[in-house]
Amino acid sequence: MDILVRNLLANPDITNLIITGNDLSKSGIVLKDFFEKGFERGKTEVTGKPVWRVKSTYPGYIELDIPESALNQLRETINVTWVENIEKFDFSKLIKPEKRREKMVFEKKEEEIKKYHGEDAVYVVRHEKVAGVWLKILDTILKYGYKSRTHYDDEQKEILNLVSVITNEDPNNFHVPEFLPCSKEQIENYIPKVTTDYKEEGITYTYGSRMRSWFGKDQVKEAVAKLVRELNSRAVVINLWDSTQDLTIGGSPCINHIWLRVREDRLYMTVTIRSNDMFEAYPENAFGMRALQEVIRKELISELKKKGTEKNIKLGSLIINSQSAHIYDDCFYNAQKIVKEHLPKYTKLPGEDLDPRGSFVIETADGKIKIEHISPTNEVLGVYEGETALELRDILISENLFGNPAHALYLGTELMKAEIALKNGLEYEQDGPLRLEKQTETTQTKEPGTQSEPVIQSESLSQGTSKGFQTKIVTYINAGGREIKSVSMQKKEDDFERILRSAGLCRIFN
Q1: What is the pTM of this model?
Q2: 374 in a domain, yes or no?
Q3: How many CB atoms neighbour CB 318 within 10 A?
């Protein structure tokens, strides 16, 4: 809406607008409402940014740098006509408005975005949910996307071949948080256009019709039949691109190719999208494709059963390769704000986000650091030894054993801790604090009903926690050298006192 208004203000010769075609996005209604009902000060629904808001049932926003007087002048100098069938419309009936306007240019202010440098092409993001993947996608494109102009002459940030992997989105109970650009109702309305031979007057095709009838056959049913005949086939492809016309006409489908693969009784689906608006369109696309994956899974189970084969086929990952993964410049601000507010809640720490390539057990013995690489099924995949963290770092990198950066960073800190322990004759415990030799004598305040005895406090190194504050593991030892209790010093002093009291240690003063 904002870009269109700026263009109209800069082109005073435009006196009539015709709105036609199927208005799936409701942008036509918003445009008509702007001219007929007007606008008012308001905020965007997702980020709360102050804007001019169109008085409409559907959201439409204009930046506040365009004066109210200019917008009102625009409304008075353009006539809007809604046309159901453009082919039958009589253009001679168009009436020019009585008033004229002068040329007014309002350059759109570019959102300030830090410029990062990264790979030239191909990024991979993973999450259990569409919402989590979407947040990671926005963050990745805002940081590493290449800034360029589009054929619409606006700016974008783009990554070539951004691969997103959605591992555990329940198609029968989609996770749709409020910050997504689509609601549950919109998703429910969209799904039939992907999963069925959906046709609507004024629309040349839908993704569903391209798959179900465009080429004179139902490719979804044929794909299921192929899997029934050959469950391990790697040749199950659904094609949406019509090579006889899509290179020469406008409006060719963005989703081009779907590949199905069953492995270990899980149905995986890979979707190729040639051009993908990752801010506005990606979530709806992803939910629609996940719904289609579920439809195919159910049909496959049913058809196998008819052939006498009982198979509990489950859903595997949904993989989407967005060949041109882009965000338009008018979405930069909203994308940044959404990422800042919501991405931390969808980002797991190393201990929470298990590496599918396995884990590592670290110990020190005989003057060396020893690492065992353990598979997710608890098998020992390899054993590595070295005297320094640097030596083992190089070995592990060359072996290509890390599935995510967080795991690699975690292992780096543990290896350094093991090396420090080894060189200083200290005890090393994986995931535990590095215990120092220094011990300081303290006294214990007498609590009513308890015995008072001298206590030695031995502090560990501080460890960062997921809440962003420091935690200390403090071990209390009595005068006879017997360990009484290890407790964590929490963020708040009263939390620390509560833990000490519950441990029967009263209050310790240094």
Answers
A1: 0.69
A2: yes
A3: 26
